[in-house]
Amino acid sequence: MNDFYPEGFKSEKKRSIITSSMLAEAKVQQTVLEAPVIMCDASHNLIVNLGCMRGIIPRSEGALGINEGTTRDIALISRVGKSVSFVVTGFSEDANGKPYALLSRRIAQALSLDHILKNKKAGDIINAKITHFESFGAFCDIGCGNVALLPIDAISVSRISHPKDRFYLGENIKAVIKNIAPDGKITLSHKELLGTWEENACLFSAGQTVSGVVRSVEDYGIFVEITPNLAGLAEPRQGTQIGQQASVYIKSIIPEKMKIKLIIIDSFDTGYTPELRYFYNGERLLEWDYSPTNCVKQITTKFCG
Description:
Elements: H1 20-29, E1 33-40, E2 46-49, E3 54-57, H2 74-77, E4 83-93, E5 99-104, H3 105-119, E6 125-134, E7 137-143, E8 146-151, E9 172-180, E10 186-189, H4 197-201, E11 209-218, E12 221-227, E13 230-234, E14 245-254, E15 259-268, E16 287-289, E17 300-302
Parallel strand pairs: 3-5, 13-15
Antiparallel strand pairs: 1-2, 1-4, 2-3, 4-5, 6-7, 6-9, 7-8, 9-10, 11-12, 11-14, 12-13, 14-15, 16-17
């Protein structure tokens, strides 16, 4: 049975050596393999380095939707220098008698998507890879180049102005399937894996001075994120700007009000962002409660499979 990973997810850790016998077996078993694209020719066929021989992914086999016009050719061109998933469909020889393999990325994507639609549901936790950003969210490869949307408000409880404030392109992350629409479009969530208010607050104590990022500047105060799912409120301070790193003194932690009171010691431009930390490492979530049990305000997520 195939394991369907985002493209590049495994090869960044350790690239498998592909042999001729492996390719022949993969053709019979319809096994999904992965290798880097070294060129996209003038006809938008992808040339893949298999090590033992060259591989060719014809344009028509480059991605789901290429033949129908719902996927643009930029999706093929942009794969140069990156890994792609594929199945082996046949073998041939070039004009010089050198063998090459015929490959299909489209079939690999279809197999991966079919596996997700048949075996996954809301609440399941999957591997994902950040592919590109929009102001409203991040798009993620969830298997063989199939893309799902991670909306900005589902990235973290702590508010961010843009997905790039939290992620970088090509980053491997964990995500929760939030919804699978009847048309097969998949929406993801992420904040539920970053811990509850109490789990994050337990990392800190009153009297500490820690680093954070300024996420919002309001008339009544400044919100500083000290870890991806936790922000506190500091009093207004002239010259402090959104995106700056801030050294903050933790004045008090109040679970019943879900509040952290801060004092900004200094703020400056560095490009710093708190490191992602996953508190939940299971395979499925049914319900998630962010708020402390004795807090009036409740923030919850329920996943309906």
